[in-house]
Amino acid sequence: MVKVDRDAAVSGISSFGLMRAAGHAVAASALRHYPEATRFVCLCGLGNNGGDALIAAAALAGSGARVAVYLMGDPARFTGDAARAFAAVSIPHQPLDTYVPTIGDVVIDGLFGAGLSRAVSSDVAALMRTVTDLTLPVIAIDLPSGVDGRSGQVLGESFQAAQTVTFMTRKPGHLLLPGRTLCGVLQVINIGIPARIVTSHRASLVENTAALWHKAVQVLDPAAHKYRRGHLIVFSGAAPSSGAARMSATAGLSAGAGLVTMVAPTEALPTLAAHLTAIMLRPVDTDEMLSDLVKDTRLNAFVLGPGFGAPDRARRYVAALSDRSLVLDADGITAFRDDPQFLFAAFRGPVRLVLTPHDGEFSRLFPDLAADTALSKIDRATIAAERSNAVIILKGSDTVISEPNGRVAINANAPPWLATAGSGDVLAGIVGAHLAQGMPPFEAATSAVWRHGVAGNKAGEGMTAENLLRAIRPLPRMPSSLARP
Description:
By secondary structure, this protein is α/β, with parallel strands linked by helices.
């Protein structure tokens, strides 16, 4: 956005005009949401966010509202448009450390914005805590002060905003946790920068929505048979731990794979047969039996890891599948903790591996990235994808999906109750089904994560993984007139 602002000015657009538009948008939000406010308290840093807050203060005063302005630092340090805003605002101002939060105040937070890179000072942190303790409404300009716009992490302390007003586009901190929960209701305001300038600086980073992957969703051919819809293989471990793999297999069938076969040791087959009907079973007890299995080119995709155990066997199986589309989850990931490079080397070339770690599993394959606190979740997923030549689904309430060429999606539709036993197994099966149907790995992963979130919302709070399976719904499909040939 710094580059966007710069290019907008170079193109002839008044940067102060943009600041005025931003400040007026903040004032409009304040009046719309809090007409009953006793006073609007504008907290102004010395950067452009402070300038926005000063413009908002003038607009609020002009509307007849009671307004107080508090500055964080010497006003002589204002520069550029912020200095111009300060000169244009005739409202008396006071030092920030003299502000005493009072019931009835609505706080306009213009202290730091999205560019904060270090922890807030102890006096500002104390003020934030007081405002929070009094449950005063906070309208944040761009981002709640204290939230890192790049990572969504809190740098020491932050405001808990009721409303956040940002401009032209969202920032990563609006979607990544805990920033997302600290923003309150997010408003994205167009302040007049042409779309061509904004899009020219857009990174390969988006929110995960249907617009990202809908072209990869195939319209069903009325004449299609089950093999045309893909054949998914899910590997099971021993009978006592086979429940996780059964979840994955059932999810794969529910998500649209034409056929699903569970591959398991012979001793586990009676247990599997007692629980499954539409899913086929096949015994594999030796590497030779596995070799015979993978000779069948109709088998489109594989899922290995849920409840699998047996790390030595997992490593051998993965090596045998290195030229196939594979979702590696749970025990399959952990099996490579002592030699992740072996896994990465096996899947060089076209991307065909999808890794689905939660933070703990991620640290087993990428301990250096997990330990580096300077990296955001986006950074970790991006570097891991490039290193492993795999699509990474770094799970959580703010799941990040990344592929080796740098494309990244942040998922924001998952309810917190998806954090339950078996939920990840269901996700692995959905990804496998999408791969089996021919979707590219990144689109298979992003659409599966989105679909998983939709199912979680449909199942509702208190759901179990079994409820989640029943809540899987079809993906949005393009109209047939728009379908690719």
